[in-house]
Amino acid sequence: MKIIVDAMGGDNAPRSNVEGALEAVRELGVEVVLVGRGEEILTELRDLGCDAPPPGLEIVHTSEVVTMEDNPATAFKEKKDSSLTMGLNLVKDGKGDAFVSAGSTGALLAGATLVTKRIRGIRRAAMAPVIPGPNGGSILIDAGATAEGTAEYLLQFAFMGSYYAEHVMGRPEPRVGLLNIGTEPSKGTDLQRETYALLKQADREGRLHFAGNIEAREAVLGEVDVIVADGYSGNIFLKTVEGTAIFLSKEMKKMFTKNVFSKLAAVLVSGGIKNFKKLMDSREIGGTPLLGISKPVIKAHGSSDGYAIKNAIAQAAKFASSGITESIAENIDAMRLPVNKEAEE
Question: Which one of 97, 177, 246, 282 counts the least CB within 10 Å of its CB?
Answer without folding.
Answer: 246
